[in-house]
Amino acid sequence: MPLTLESSLLGTIAYEAGEVYTFADGIPGFPHLHEFIFRKIEDSPFTVMHAIQEDTCFFLIDPFTRYADYECKLPAFALEQLKIESQEDVLCYTIVVLREPLTDSTTNLSAPIVLNVRERLGMQLALENEAYSIRTKLFAEAADEKVGK
Amino acid sequence: MLVLRRKVGEAIVISEGIQVKVISVQGDQVKIGIEAPQHVSVYRQEIYDAIQEENRQAAAQQLSMNLLQLKELGSSFPKKK
């Protein structure tokens, strides 16, 4: 029997126990949230990461489709924590912060959400890569045009 | 807060398996070595704080969004650079 949760964004969400991801430490700022489900928003580049315990969710994007040269190198402790054995088990998203105006919206490339799809484990990983900003513009081209005018 | 005085090369043990060692001191910079089990996450404080703040903003702003706005935003989303 499917389980359900109430979301102010998505309404009633039906989900199976088997699709729930466990985040052992929660994520920074939300250490109490240990269980999430993921829902792709149709006709958009966004995926929603929704907490099971409360009506809290995050917008995510796939950083690799937006930033062609993005790399998410997993250190040994992340492989261990997420029990990752094969690269095929790994999914990586980055959290989006929508801003006013929307063209100022950013995504956190320096701390991606990393998932092991086989074990259903997840974490937010702080990459030790100074090239990636915590506030990388989603609409860099639009922003550049503005600067030029 | 527990305050301990340590010399270069000396260490502190925090519970089983977590060791914090002073590697070197140069001016106002202290190099610290940390040994911890793989399941323990270690962050620089300012990086942890920054991630925490971004996450809070990310969670808060979804309250004022709806799916239609999200799809509209997505339609103007640029593809690969």
UniProtKB/TrEMBL annotation, chain A:
Gene3D superfamilies reported in the protein's UniProt record: BH3618-like
GO cellular component annotations of the record: cytoplasm
Localisation: Cytoplasm
Pfam families: FliW
SUPFAM superfamilies according to UniProt: BH3618-like
Chief site of localization: cytoplasm
Transmembrane segments: none
Keyword tags: Bacterial flagellum biogenesis, Cell projection, Chaperone, Cilium, Cytoplasm, Flagellum, Translation regulation
Biological processes, Gene Ontology terms: bacterial-type flagellum assembly; regulation of translation
Quaternary context: Interacts with translational regulator CsrA and flagellin(s).
Family: Belongs to the FliW family.
Free-text function comment from the UniProt entry: Acts as an anti-CsrA protein, binds CsrA and prevents it from repressing translation of its target genes, one of which is flagellin. Binds to flagellin and participates in the assembly of the flagellum.
Annotated protein name in UniProt: Flagellar assembly factor FliW
Gene from which this protein is expressed: fliW
From TrEMBL, chain B:
Keywords: Bacterial flagellum biogenesis, Cytoplasm, Repressor, RNA-binding, Translation regulation
Cellular compartment(s): Cytoplasm
Gene Ontology molecular function terms on file: mRNA 5'-UTR binding
Gene3D superfamilies found in the cross-reference section: Translational regulator CsrA
GO BP of this protein: bacterial-type flagellum organization; mRNA catabolic process; negative regulation of translational initiation; regulation of bacterial-type flagellum assembly; regulation of carbohydrate metabolic process
GO annotation, cellular component aspect: cytosol
Quaternary data: Homodimer; the beta-strands of each monomer intercalate to form a hydrophobic core, while the alpha-helices form wings that extend away from the core.
Assigned protein family: Belongs to the CsrA/RsmA family.
Functional summary from the UniProt entry: A translational regulator that binds mRNA to regulate translation initiation and/or mRNA stability. Usually binds in the 5'-UTR at or near the Shine-Dalgarno sequence preventing ribosome-binding, thus repressing translation. Its main target seems to be the major flagellin gene, while its function is anatagonized by FliW.
The name this protein goes by in its record: Translational regulator CsrA
